[in-house]
Amino acid sequence: MHVLMASAEMSPVARVGGMAEAVSGLVRQLRRDGIGVTVVLPDYGGVELAGERRRTLEVPDWAHPVTARTGVLDGHGEITLLEGHGSIKPHPYSDERGAAWADNDLRFFTFSAGVAALTGELAPDVLHVNDWHTSATLGFLAEPPPCVLTIHTLAYPGISPPYWMERLVRSPDLFAWYGDTNPLLGAIRLADRVVTVSPNYATEILSEGQGMGLHPVLGQVVDKLVGIINGIDVEEWNPATDARLVATYTAGSMRGKSANRAALHERFGLDADGPSQPLIGMVTRLVEQKGIDLAADAARFLDRVPARLAVLGSGDADLAARLAILADQQPGRIGFVNGYDAELSHLVFAGSDLLLMPSRFEPCGLAQMQAMAYGTIPIVTDVGGLHDTVVDDDTDPERGTGFVCRSVDTAGVVDAIHRAARAWNTTKRRSAIRHRGMSIDWSWAGPARSYLDLYREIA
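-> structure tokens emitted (459 positions)
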């Protein structure tokens, strides 16, 4: 079987959210399973490919020229990068202030036209597109192959000016959205299977509250809607072999976790007064979706728990400023590093006792799985993939792997932190929760089998 996988992100070429890790993990596992996968990404610049081959694709006049660079990315196999109108940018979607690039519609519609051209050339058994950035591909193909659309989040449908519908060659009316063009909407209607990145999110988006206005259409295609939980790269996220850590460790011997804990205290300037106060970590994008404001509100009560907080994240400038103020107001108790640092993120997962994810919605979430793999107990809200992956230990002591907020608000977060801290301070209970989380197979093996089953159904 040959699958053409098109995405705006894939680690390590471009990483903004969970989609980058998900696409990378799925592609690697499919290739391990013997599936031929052609990976197509925008050329954002700065990526060197071994044995590079270049060619110009046959695209509509408005999209011309689109250049395809195909070669081997060290450690990640062969990929194809498409250079088109404005594709080369320092960030896939936005400038340094977080404002979307003004030409994003042209950039990603051009990319989709290039993906359509490649699809016509290569004739894959299955076309797999991801989120709105590749959704218009289905409108540029008069006779597309069987297609899977993965929705990593409904929050960004890619609403664009109405004139884009005039450039589509297949069912442009299906992309119409209150006078504008909605590429994600069109792909939902045209794809043979629509996958969300967790079973619970597939249910949630049928409701008005989580459907982002698309719930009526999703309700009409529920027969082709499937939820498949993401995996994580268990080779990269393995505390027994992680070279980024101060010390490695396993579920059977956790001594190395203490050394990482001490290093994390030092890196974030936190007081280290022994093991009596749990250290709560956060590795997150600073956006409203992630409940950063709820975490900031809850942080006012950390001295009563008591606990400490280390936050690594980047995004909204106002949220970053609020976290910086909190760190200044509570030195030694709250630490904040503004930015994304891959090496430091591994230390946060390894050195923290608890991980906080107070998301308002979370299609899948990877951090909670990465945390459990490192023996760090997650505190999460009961949404999306968090619902599917974390079992509240107070509710189910035999299966508990973390703590689930009883409400998505400050009171719910504070309550869950208190409950988690009490459990953490009971050695036997803490060890049991950690061991259960570290024993789960979080790899891509199972999710890849589910995707392969879908490919076979439609192909």
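Residues 255-439 form a domain with the Rossmann fold fold (CATH 3.40.50.2000).
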